[in-house]
Amino acid sequence: MTPVNRKECLRLVVFEQGGSGAYKVAGIETYGRDIEIEQVYDISSPLPEIIDEPEEFISGNFGGDLVLDFLRHPDLSEYLVRLCVTKGIPVIAPGQHIPGAICPFTCCGLRRREGLGPYGEQFGMPEYGLEIRDGHIAGLQVRRGAPCGATWKVIPRMIGVPLERAVDTIGREIQFLCKVSPSSFDPISGKSRLHFAGEVHMAAIKKAISKKT
Fold it and tell me: Does a structural domain hold residue 60?
């Protein structure tokens, strides 16, 4: 994996299937800094159950500093990861289990790690700064958040919430904002991605409160 130079604008390449990454691309464009979305490759044509020649759908003629894989077809994702490995480009494939890729449970489950430049600094497992007034939340500052933007969008719903209700409230509100299907379960762990998104935000607000109290 070739580390991204922190001083340069990160060139991001996105692969999606039928607009599957559109919501996150919009979030990155809205809330990201020093990130240039160089290309979005959308595969919208009907696909067979088994793809023997994935190169017919994915051209190797791309370059960048980081690839986000939102493809749904496992044959295409595995081929994309192999391409990225040969090119020396790190690839994040949320919710998947592909050797050679970084595979957080969800986009908001990406832990901090070296080599992901501005994207890794700004997006992934959420982190908040907190302002408290009279036992209520007076302000939230996002230090790191979900690329879908839910970490930022939930802030107006949290202002004025009493501290003792903050953890449960943010978990519930994030699940309203999250675009993951409620029926989406990981077949290996059996965990719900929607609940996981709520849990990581609950952990983030709990940590922010503990630093202030």
Answer: yes
- Is it the case that residue 189 has pLDDT exceeding 70? no
Q: Which residues contact 27 (CB under 8 A, 6 or more apart)?
A: 146, 147, 148, 149
Joined together, the tokens standing for residue 158 give 């949290």
Identity of residue 88: G
Which strands form 10-17's sheet, in the order they lie side by side?
Answer: 35-43, 10-17, 66-70, 91-92
Q: How buried is 200 (Cβ within 10 angstroms: 0-12 exposed, 13-18 middle, 19+ buried)?
A: buried
Residue 133 CB contacts under 8 Å (≥ 6 apart), including other chains? none
Residues spanned by the domain of 21: 10-103
Residue 138 confidence class, pLDDT cut points 50, 70, 90? very high
Contact 202, 108 (CB under 8 A): no
Q: Convert the pLDDT of each residue in 22-33 to its tens digit.
A: 999 999 999 999
Residue 163, token pair as written in the block: 């501290």
Q: Where are the alpha helices (DSSP H) in 88-130?
A: 117-122
Look up the CATH number of the domain holding residue 54.
3.40.50.720
Q: What is the number of domains present in the chain? A: 2
Neighbours of 1 (CB within 10 A): 16
What size, in residues, is the chain? Answer: 213
Burial of 66 (0-12, 13-18, 19+ CB in 10 A): buried
